[in-house]
Predict the 3D structure of the following.
Amino acid sequence: MQSLKDLFVLLLGAISALYLLNIGVGVFEFVPDNLPLIGNLDEATATFLLLNCLTYFGINIGPLQKLLPADKRLKSEPPSSPADKK
């Protein structure tokens, strides 16, 4: 791994994927699914984390992630001004 951040993102993605695979068979849940309105928030959060971890490594599978190329999302460079072009 290049850095501790890469390792952390990889670990977070793996935990999210394992949670979504439902290895606990419904016995181990942070929020029970039968609660109205908030029952699926834990799965939504795990999905959000997994998609963002995949995007971090350049794998774009979500429809909203195609708005910007992966290299633009990873680099936070300020936009160039018109004066720089002259």
In short: The helical segments are 4-20, 41-56, 70-74. The mean pLDDT is 78.
